[in-house]
Amino acid sequence: MEQIIDASIEYSDKTDVLVLWAEPARPEWEPDPRDGLLCIFRGAGKDEVVGVEIVGFSKFKAWDELQKLPVLWRLKGQKPLRTVDLLKYLQSTLKGRTEQAAGLA
Length: 105
Known about the structure:
The structure is a single chain. By secondary structure, the chain is α+β, with helices and mostly antiparallel strands. The chain has one domain. Helix content is 22%, strand content 39%. It contains two helices and seven strands; from the N terminus they run E-E-E-E-E-H-E-E-H. It has helices spanning 64-67, 83-101; strands at 3-12, 17-22, 29-33, 38-43, 49-55, 71-75, 81-82. The N and C termini lie far apart (40 Å).
């Protein structure tokens, strides 16, 4: 059975960086960079996933590495989703919000 992690997100339109954090925040974690755009944050035990950071989130397409994470993330008031499913949902939501603000939607 996959672990369910309560989560929060941080996103900056200016930098196009999204961070998905486990809640409550873990006091100790280490970055596990995968390439120049993706970093997985791991708890002190190395097996625990405590966050994901994606640079260039609005155009990110390298989902393969995230398919391997054996966790479900649950944002407040929402059902738990696999990492890729949640991030793709957030990406489409943010894209729609950006297009609406620009008068394109």
